[in-house]
Structures are given as structure tokens and as C-alpha cells.
């Protein structure tokens, strides 16, 4: 089998948009609910995200940037019957349907683990990298992302010889798809055919199967199967697993809140999957029994502590042959979690370094380091075929931090979302951003 030894796993992080706010929109996501109506700081949120991107770029990794969405989403508000000037639309929406307005203002596209599912070219039948934007049907504010996400992905990976872009799955709950947050690719070398691991919360067409009772299962088995078909994956290169419904009911709304993998390593909680011993056996078999698992016992870290600290919403990165784990500060503040992590680092586990980041602005909406990034494995030609303006560099970091400083507010509360000035500020920021990243006219306001 042909292996490209220069293939890398690139991380494309979502740039936080200028309307970042806390609106309590995500039932089942404990942090989103508990921070509802607090004041946000979009400037700090964007700078915290950029600091992580820059640090990983400095560590020698390939780091990219995905542009945010146009928010407030005036097109959606008009589709819902609000009319008149832009200022009128905002004002009437805030008076008559303030939650709908908040949903149309969410900066939730920052969590690019939910932007799409990506299959590297080594796994696909046609040898291209495949992208399917996630329909995110379970939450209204997220269901309005996929069209523009698709345009941003096309403008970032803009070479048909190497990249295949699909439409999102049909936007109904039967095919609820949350993208890469529920997808992990295991491999021995990035450039070699790997094992794509799809995790779902429930079955849409089989009500005899277990499902959570308190909180929604956002992602279905049928959606995962459809993505594997669309991407042309071989049956022997795919493993499916159902999330443990009990942990969904404790706030694990995506699999990346309870498990993370990289290369031949799975780091997961003991209660992550239904029939866990069987799932791990299947994965080990698919990986020719060269597979390592760090399974964290409930007695060491409870599911509640995992959800609060986002221990598993970490990034496992290969840096100079070592495995480094990128974690949010909240892990350091949780004694059970920090004890466990330092023991891993100091013992003989594959994890040899901890990198801690302050991502508080995103964490308060339930988005940790892993939520903020979309992984894209790229061989050498594919790296060269990416839009170079979207790849992190010292110059891009400087340019983007200046751009944030110039355009972003340092405080937003609910009442600000109807401010027509915020709409103008956001549009002028995004207009400039499309030039910086050389994306063309991806936003609806640029297409009139
Ligand atoms: N785990 C991953 N990969 N992503 C985290 C997504 C967090 C996001 N939060 C929100 O959308 C909250 C928005 C608000 O309440 O204002 C969500 O629940 O979809």
C-alpha cells in the first residue's frame, strides 16, 4: 500500500465571530445552559482562540483558520417573516421573538469540530479528501450554519483535483449529523489507510434500540452510515459505536466530550460507549491489534468531573514523535482530573506533555480545545492545494489579532443583539476577513 510519509494532521480552528454571546441555546449542554444571559467578551474569546492556534503553529504543527458565519443572520430572520429595513427586522425580532433573534446571532460556528466530517484521501475510494458539512439539525441556531460552512470549506480547500465537497445530509432529525465531534480516525501513519470510527447517539429507524431519556441524542446511526457511503469508505475501514445513553443524560452531548483519539491511541472514559469492551475489541482488531487504550475509570474521574473539566475535549497531538495533550485550564482546577493527568504524564503512558490553555470564553458555552478544531489529514500535494491565506503564520497571527482588536467589542449582553450598529460592525469585519483569508464572497450580505 502506498504511504505518503509527509502526510500531516492539520487542525483548522474556527475563528470566533464578533457576536459571541451566551444565550443558553443548547439544551443538554450543561455549560451553555448555566451561562445563559451572562455578559460575553467576543474580543477576548477570539484572542484566546488565536493564541491556541499560534501556540500549535509554533510547536511545528500545520494550523489553519476557518472563517466564522455572518451573524446576525438577517436572511434567516426574513425567512421567518420579519420585514422592513435591517434595523426593523432586528428590532421586531427582539420584541416578538428574542430567543429566535439570539439563535440567529450565535457565534456557534466557532466549534468547527461540528463543521463537517472529513475523510482523508488514503481512506476514500476516489483518493480525494471528502468533506460533508454537518446539518446540526438538533439545535435551530446550529442548523442554519451548514450552507455557509460548505462555502467556507470550498474556499479553503479549493481544488477539485484533491477535495470532494458534499452537500449536508437532509435536514431532519432522522439524519441528525454533528460532524467530526462524533468521528475519530485511527491510523498507524497519517498517510496510510486508517480506521474511521463513527459514534452516534441513537437509531432513527429502530425504536427498539436504547436511547437517552433526559437529553437529546443529536446524532443518528443512519447519518453516520450515510457519511461513510458518501465518502466511499471501505467496510473494513469503518467501525460504528453507540454512545452510552446514560452519559448523554449527564451532559455528554457529543462523543468528543467523553473520548478522543489520535493515530493508534484512544483516550476515553470507562462509561463512554454502549458495550464498551466489544467496541474496543473491534477497534483493536481493525487496527491489527496495534492499538492503545487509556480508559479512565469512573472511580478516578466521574462523568460529572469529565463534563465540568472537559478532560476528554482535549487534543492529542503528535509533536516530534511524542504525544502531547492540549487541555483547558478547567482541567488544572479540578483535583481529580489534574491528579490523573499528571500521573499519566509522569508515568509510562504514551502521553508525555500537557499543554494548558485559557479558553474560558468558549468553555462557558461548552466548547473546549477539541470543539474548536476540525482535523484534516493532508498529504503533501493536498497541503500545497489548500488556500494558503488560511494557514497560520506569524504574519497571519499578527494580522488577525489586529483585525480582532479593531472590530470586536469586549462585552455583549442580550440587549445588544438588536443593535443595528452590531450588524454593521460584524459585516465590515467579515468583509475585511474574506480579503485577508482570500475567500471570495462567501457571505449572503456580499452576494446582493
Ligand atoms: N463538543 C463539540 N464538538 N462542540 C461544542 C459545541 C458547543 C455548542 N454550544 C452552543 O451552541 C451554545 C450557544 C449558546 O448557548 O449561546 C453546542 O451545544 O453545539
How would you explain this protein's 3D organization?
The radius of gyration is 21 Å and the shape is globular. The strands form five sheets. Strands 2-1-15 form a three-stranded mixed beta sheet, with helices on both faces. A three-stranded mixed beta sheet has the order 3-4-5. A three-stranded mixed beta sheet has the order 6-7-8, sandwiched between helices. The model has no long low-confidence stretch (mean pLDDT 97). The chain has a single domain, classed as L-arginine/glycine Amidinotransferase, Chain A (5-stranded Propeller). It has 448 residues and is α/β, with parallel strands linked by helices. N~2~-(3-carboxypropanoyl)-L-arginine (SUG) binds next to loops.
Amino acid at each position: 500500500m502506498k504511504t505518503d510519509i509527509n502526510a500531516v494532521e492539520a487542525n483548522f480552528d474556527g475563528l470566533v465571530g464578533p457576536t459571541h454571546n451566551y444565550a443558553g441555546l443548547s439544551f443538554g449542554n450543561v455549560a451553555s445552559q448555566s451561562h445563559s444571559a451572562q455578559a460575553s467578551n467576543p474580543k477576548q474569546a477570539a484572542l484566546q482562540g488565536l493564541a491556541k492556534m499560534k501556540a500549535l503553529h509554533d510547536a511545528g504543527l500545520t494550523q489553519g483558520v476557518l472563517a466564522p458565519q455572518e451573524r446576525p443572520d438577517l436572511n434567516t430572520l426574513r425567512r421567518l417573516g420579519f420585514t422592513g429595513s435591517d434595523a426593523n427586522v432586528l428590532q421586531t425580532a427582539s420584541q416578538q421573538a428574542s430567543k429566535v433573534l439570539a439563535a440567529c446571532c450565535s457565534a456557534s460556528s466557532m466549534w468547527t469540530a461540528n463543521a463537517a466530517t472529513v475523510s482523508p484521501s488514503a481512506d476514500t475510494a476516489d483518493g480525494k479528501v471528502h468533506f460533508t458539512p454537518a446539518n446540526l439539525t438538533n439545535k435551530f441556531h446550529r442548523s442554519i450554519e451548514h450552507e455557509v460552512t460548505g462555502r467556507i470549506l470550498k474556499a479553503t480547500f479549493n481544488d477539485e483535483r484533491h477535495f470532494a465537497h458534499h452537500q449536508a445530509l437532509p435536514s431532519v432529525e432522522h439524519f441528525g449529523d454533528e460532524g467530526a465531534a462524533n468521528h475519530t480516525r485511527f491510523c498507524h501513519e497519517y498517510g496510510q489507510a486508517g480506521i474511521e470510527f463513527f459514534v452516534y447517539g441513537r437509531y432513527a429507524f429502530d425504536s427498539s434500540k436504547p436511547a437517552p431519556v433526559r437529553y437529546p441524542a443529536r446524532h443518528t446511526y443512519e447519518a453516520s452510515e450515510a457519511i461513510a457511503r458518501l465518502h466511499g469508505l471501505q467496510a473494513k475501514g469503518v467501525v460504528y459505536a453507540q454512545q452510552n445513553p446514560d452519559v448523554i443524560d449527564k451532559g455528554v452531548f457529543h462523543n468528543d466530550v467523553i473520548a478522543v483519539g489520535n493515530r493508534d491511541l484512544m483516550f476515553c472514559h470507562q462509561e463512554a460507549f454502549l458495550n464498551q469492551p466489544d467496541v474496543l475489541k473491534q477497534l483493536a482488531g481493525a487496527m491489527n491489534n496495534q492499538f492503545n487504550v487509556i480508559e479512565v475509570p469512573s472511580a478516578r474521574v466521574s462523568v460529572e468531573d469529565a463534563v465540568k473539566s472537559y478532560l476528554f475535549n482535549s487534543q492529542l497531538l503528535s509533536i516530534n514523535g511524542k504525544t502531547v495533550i492540549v487541555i483547558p485550564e478547567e482541567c488544572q482546577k479540578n483535583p481529580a482530573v489534574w491528579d490523573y493527568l499528571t500521573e499519566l504524564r509522569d508515568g509510562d503512558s504514551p502521553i508525555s506533555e500537557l499543554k494548558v490553555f485559557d479558553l474560558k470564553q468558549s468553555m462557558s458555552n461548552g466548547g473546549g480545545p477539541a470543539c474548536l478544531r476540525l482535523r484534516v489529514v493532508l498529504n503533501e500535494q493536498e497541503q500545497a492545494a489548500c488556500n494558503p491565506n488560511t494557514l497560520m503564520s506569524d504574519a497571519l497571527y499578527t494580522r488577525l489579532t489586529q483585525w480582532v482588536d479593531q472590530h470586536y467589542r469586549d462585552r455583549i449582553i442580550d440587549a445588544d443583539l438588536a443593535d443595528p450598529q452590531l450588524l454593521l460592525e460584524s459585516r465590515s469585519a467579515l468583509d475585511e476577513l474574506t480579503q485577508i483569508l482570500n475567500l471570495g464572497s462567501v457571505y449572503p450580505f456580499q452576494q446582493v
